[in-house]
Amino acid sequence: MQKRQLGATGPVVSAIGLGCMGMSNAYGPADRDESIATVRAAVDAGVTLLDTGDFYGQGHNELLISEAIRGRRDEVLLSVKFGAMRDAEGAFLGFDGRPVAVANSLAYSLQRLGTDHVDVYRPARLDPDVPIEDTIGAIAEQVEKGHVRHIGLSEVGAETIRRAHAVHPIADLQIEYGLLERGVEKEILRTTRELGIGITAYGVLSRGLISATPLAISSGDWRGHTPRFQGDNLRHNAALVEKLGEIARDKGVTVAQLAIAWVAARGEDVVPLVGTSKRARLEEAIGAVDVTFTEQELREIDTVVPVGAAAGTRYPAQQMAMLDSER
């Protein structure tokens, strides 16, 4: 497995990471045994970066990961998001970035994960009522105590990145980045590179939209509420994926491998996070690590899927309004 460093001050991780959200029923029912087997297969294959959030399944995801890596904690780096509040039905209630919430959330994550430290700890979103300096300062205190190794950010804009980095070095920014979502290239990527901050890119497959098989959305799948997956938008986006599939077939790879490799090719400071709960999909994703492109191939991909080609926003309007990265 190839390696990459998360920013100038962050840890060295595998060239792709495993996003574990889908193992906690975010995209409909997930098989527990298969999810655990997928995490273990990833570690066996040299994938060292596991990404989770304490609100994925209201703690379910962290407990599942704890079981999957039992006896192998030293082989992985745990990236954990916190701060998103949910009710018993799973609805999001907002974000809490207060210093007291940092200490409280981390304590529960350490317990659920069965570990004494988190490798990268980050607020899931910017709390509009709490200065980012206060949130990062509170995480920095946990770094001093040894409970956190590195600090990350998620879905924040350039100004917030600079303010956070002035308090404590930021290892990486987690943000959606892929063939159908390139907003990070406007200003954010330039800022992270100036400051020596890495990128962990989620949504590289546009939440399953970029796939060789037609997307089936079950009743418990939150993607059904997302504009990008609705009506004419979905038909338009599926047509884009079909064109990408033609390029992938000519290259002898799957369309998913093409998309993952494209993100990895954006720079050595970018680590794609591949979200899956199935070993077969994991194996396909790992196969993308060695895929490279010629300049002509990259130009062809840009012609088929230019910046802004996707129809519909990546989140519903209410959630888009919460994204500091979109301001």
UniProtKB/TrEMBL annotation:
<dbReference type="InterPro" id="IPR050791">
    <property type="entry name" value="Aldo-Keto_reductase"/>
</dbReference>
<keyword id="KW-0560">Oxidoreductase</keyword>
<dbReference type="GO" id="GO:0016491">
    <property type="term" value="F:oxidoreductase activity"/>
</dbReference>
<dbReference type="GO" id="GO:0005737">
    <property type="term" value="C:cytoplasm"/>
</dbReference>
<protein>
    <submittedName>
        <fullName>Predicted oxidoreductase</fullName>
    </submittedName>
</protein>
<dbReference type="InterPro" id="IPR023210">
    <property type="entry name" value="NADP_OxRdtase_dom"/>
</dbReference>
<dbReference type="Pfam" id="PF00248">
    <property type="entry name" value="Aldo_ket_red"/>
</dbReference>
<feature type="domain" description="NADP-dependent oxidoreductase">
    <location>
        <begin position="15"/>
        <end position="304"/>
    </location>
</feature>
<dbReference type="InterPro" id="IPR036812">
    <property type="entry name" value="NAD(P)_OxRdtase_dom_sf"/>
</dbReference>
